[in-house]
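Translate sequence into structure tokens.
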Amino acid sequence: MADLKNLSVEEFAAVTGSDAPAPGGGSVAALAGGLGAALAEMVANLTIGKAKYADVEEEMKGLPKGTLLIKIAKKTHLLKPEAPVDSLANANPGKIRA
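Result follows.
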């Protein structure tokens, strides 16, 4: 499977809707969070350099960049397409329930 963070939006949606075990809820949540963070970054960038917002400029410059998109890749590497879901349950008894 390709690195999910390098897929187009259409490709990501297609693989999410397929019978592949990943991406799953965690990767989709990380993407949604990453998009939310990108919007916050946009607001910060529109704020920086404006005299009206000088008192919060340093705070805006300190916002983290792109950290949730990294989590998409890390989360997906926990699941391997060739590993059936029940093998995950066997590896983590009591943590995964049907």
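Note: Helices lie at 9-16, 25-47, 57-61, 67-77, 85-91.
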